[in-house]
Amino acid sequence: MKDAFGLPQSLLVLGGTSEIALATARRLIARRTRTVRLAGRPTPALESAAADLRALGADVRTVAFDALDTESHESVLGKVFAGGDIDLVLLAFGVLGDQASDERDPVAAVRVAQTNYTGAVSAGLIAARALQTQGHGSLVVLSSVAAERARRANFIYGSSKAGLDTFAQGLGDALHGTGVHVMVVRPGFVRTRMTAGLAEAPLATTPEEVAAAVELGLRRRSETVWVPGVLRVVMSGLRHLPRGLFRRLPV
């Protein structure tokens, strides 16, 4: 069960090698979390991440999970929840893709959409039902400011995040009053392996800063978290710009 501050004792990470998710796990272990399940494709990176968290004092196990293999999600996640209550599910998997290349390769573009949206819908619904059955818990969904408005530079990724964001908001409304809390996290540009080599956007942040915002959001039982917070104002302005003017911006 969560403590008096809303922080979890047990954590399931979907996307177990995500730098944001691992920064969040480290922060929560330092506070309260003692049980962590890292779900992801079986790789040396996943095992290394688990070992690093174990060194912090948590009971950590890895779970073989593939976002694209939606037919396996029911079984895989069912086994995790059968092992004991989960206080927090962090849905953190996703791919950025290569916009220029993916525009010319519909199969690759669809893979981005299936990973970021279809896989998340499947895993999100299954996790939400399990949390509802146990009567408590939080589902934290890593979205992006890219979900707020389509940009020429990354509209394939942005459209997948827009779908995910809308889904998570609706899921939160559907679960309101059930004891299950859904929180959508919208970071801006985060300095990670996924964004390495890309031109850094204004108001860039780090996995550790996102993790701090997630912790604060959990304490407050927030429904939406922007990282950094000023992006809420910035994106509100950009969202309402006339389309012709928006096209001229270097975004």
Main attributes?
single chain; 251 residues; seven-stranded parallel beta sheet; 7 strands; 47% helix
What secondary-structure arrangement, pairings included, does this model have?
Elements: E1 10-14, H1 19-31, E2 35-40, H2 44-54, E3 59-64, H3 73-82, E4 88-91, H4 99-102, H5 106-134, E5 137-142, H6 155-175, E6 180-187, H7 207-220, E7 224-227, H8 231-239, H9 243-248
Parallel strand pairs: 1-2, 1-4, 2-3, 4-5, 5-6, 6-7
General description of the model:
This protein is α/β, with parallel strands linked by helices. 47% of the residues lie in helices and 16% in strands. It has helices spanning 19-31, 44-54, 73-82, 99-102, 106-134, 155-175, 207-220, 231-239, 243-248, and strands at residues 10-14, 35-40, 59-64, 88-91, 137-142, 180-187, 224-227. A seven-stranded parallel β-sheet has the order 3-2-1-4-5-6-7, with helices on both faces. Helix 1 (19-31) crosses helix 7 (207-220), helix 3 (73-82) runs parallel beside helix 5 (106-134) and helix 5 (106-134) runs parallel beside helix 6 (155-175).
